[in-house]
Model the fold of this input.
Amino acid sequence: MRSLIRPLVRRLHPYVPGEQPKIRGLIKLNTNENPYPPSPKVLAAIRAAVDGRLRLYPNPEAGRLRSRLAKFHGCAPENFIVGNGSDELLALATRAFVEPGLPVQFLTPSYSLYPVLADIQGARRNAVALAEAFALPSVSDLRKGGAWDFRAPLTFITTPNAPSGRGYETRDLEVLCRAQKGVVVLDEAYVDFARENAFSLAMRFPHVLVARTFSKAYSLCFLRVGYFAGNRGLIAALQKIRDSYNVNGLGQVAAEATLGDLPYYRRQIKRLIATRERLSGELRALGFQVLPSQSNFIFARPPAFPAGEWLRQLRARRVLVRWFKQPETRDFLRITVGTDAEADALLRAARGFLTG
Amino acid sequence: MRSLIRPLVRRLHPYVPGEQPKIRGLIKLNTNENPYPPSPKVLAAIRAAVDGRLRLYPNPEAGRLRSRLAKFHGCAPENFIVGNGSDELLALATRAFVEPGLPVQFLTPSYSLYPVLADIQGARRNAVALAEAFALPSVSDLRKGGAWDFRAPLTFITTPNAPSGRGYETRDLEVLCRAQKGVVVLDEAYVDFARENAFSLAMRFPHVLVARTFSKAYSLCFLRVGYFAGNRGLIAALQKIRDSYNVNGLGQVAAEATLGDLPYYRRQIKRLIATRERLSGELRALGFQVLPSQSNFIFARPPAFPAGEWLRQLRARRVLVRWFKQPETRDFLRITVGTDAEADALLRAARGFLTG
Done:
C-alpha cells in the first residue's frame, strides 16, 4: 500500500492545528478565535438561507461577495479570489507560483502552516529569522545576512506577525516588496486589530497579494471564508486551480452580511483591543514580559517557570493557551485575548499558580 | 506579471461548471441537483447551530461525522476522509498518488473534472473510451485496446457513469480493480440512485477508494460535503495534504443530521426514481433515444434536431438542460430528473419545440 503513495507525501509531517478541546468549561485562549459572536444581522441572514435552497450549488465564483469586497476596498471583483478560509488560498499560492524544488520563503517565527505548504508542494523551505524582538528585518540586513532570497518565487509575510503579535509598518513592507522579484503574500489575518494595513500595496504592485479572513475579526471560523486581493493576472491564475465550488454557500451568505454590518464589528474590535491592553498591563504586573500586540492575542514570556510548565498549570486550572516549542518561541506563551471575564479567569489562574 | 505564474498554470484551461442562472423562473435541470429539500430535521439541526459558536473553528478532523459514517458503513473512522465536497478529495487524490508526468486515467465520457485535475497536477491524461453504449470495457478488451494503463498510479471510474447515467455491476468493477496496480477511485457520486454500490471493494482492496457526496441524494450541494472511504494508509496520506480545517462546520452538522434521518432520503430517492422512469418513457414516446439511467439524470439523444439546437430551444422555453459538445456526447442532452412538475414542464417544452 505504501508504494501507492508519492514518496513526497509519505515523508510529510502534517500541520497540527491548535487543540479543539472536548472538555466542557475550558476557557479556550489557544486558537485566536474572536470571543464575540457574529452580528445578529449575520446570524439572521444565515438562518434565512437555511431552507430548500441548500440543495443547489453555491455561486462557483462567489460573485456577489466579490462585488461587495470590490465596493468595500475600492477596486474590481477581478482583484479578488475567495477561499475556503485563507488557508486554502495560501496553499493555492504555492501551487500556482512555485515549481517543485524552488523556495517558499517566510520569516520565523510566523504562521507554522507555511513550511507544511512548502513541503506538500515539494518546494524548498527558505525560513529566515526575524530581527531582534520579532522585528521585520531591513532589506540591507537581509542582503547582508545572505540567507534571504530576493528571487524566491513566493514569500509569505505574516503582518501583524503571529505568534508574536507584532505589527509592521506599511512603509517597511513596501521597501521589502520593492526588493522582491517573486510573488509576495502579505498575510493580514489579524490586521483588523492593528493600527494600519498594507492593502494598498496589493493594488500598487503586480506581484503583491494581500490575504484576509472572516475568521478572526469577523467571528466566522466555523464557516471558512477568506480572500486574497491583488493583481488580476495573479488572481486569475489562482482561480484556474481552485476547486470549482470551493466556498460553501452559507459562508458566502455570512460574509456578504458581515460586510453589511461593519459598525458592529468595529465596536467588538475596539472592546477586544481595550481588553488586550488591560490584560497586557496586568500580566506585566505579574512579571510577564509582554510584547506589544497589534493582534487579538498576546505573546508573553512568563515568569518563574518554563513556558511549557505554565501551559500545563494553566490547563490544570481550566485555561487553555498555546505554546510553540521551537527554540525561538519556547520561552513564550501565546494567549488569545478573550472577553474581559476570560482575561480575568486567566489572570486568576496565573496568580493561583504563582502563589500556589 | 505572467512570468510570476508557473508555466503549467498559465497553460491551464479551467473546469467550466454548469451554469447557475440568475434569471428567475428558469427550470434548472442542468447540474443534477436534487429537486427535494433536505429533511426538516437537517434544516432544524443547521438552524440550531447558527449562533455565537460560529466564531469557533470547526472540528478539523470532522471527527463526529467520521464516527457516524463508520457506524453507518460498518468500518472504522480511520477509513474515512471528509472533504469540501468530493471534488476536493478527487483533487487531493491526484496530489497524493500521482507524480507529475505520470498518468491520471479515466474513461470517456465521464466526469469532465478529471482531465482538469490531471492538468493541474502536471500529470498526463490517459483518457480511454468506454465501450459501446457507454458500457464498462472488459479487462480483456482493455488489454487488447492497448491504450489502458494497468499500472497508472491513479484511475477514476465514475459509477454510475456521468453523463450517461449507466450503472456498472460490482462484479465487473471488481475484475477491473483486481487488474489495476495503482489507486482506483470509484466515484459513486450518484450511487444512491442505482441498484447496487461497490462500497465493499474499498474495504476489500487496499488500493481502492470509494467517493461519496452529500450533494446529490442528500440535497446539500450548498454546504460542500463529500467523503472517501478506503484503506487507512491511503486515507492517512490524503489527510496529510488537506487543509487543516477543510470542512465547514455547518456542513459537518448537516451531514451528521442527514445520517440521522435516512428514511426521509430513501423516500425522496424512491420518488425521484419513479419520476425518472416516467420521464424516460414519455421522452421515448416523443422520439428521444433514452439510455437506461441509474442516476438522478437522463442522457438522451433528441429527435429531429441537433442536440445543441435543442439546448437553445429548451432554454428559450425556460428549461435549462446540459449539453457536452465533445464528439462522443454531442448528440445527447443530459437532463436532471426534477420533480414531477419539472418533468412535465420539460415535456411540454419538448412538445412545443417539436410541434412548433
User: Anything to note?
Assistant: The mean pLDDT of chain B is 96.
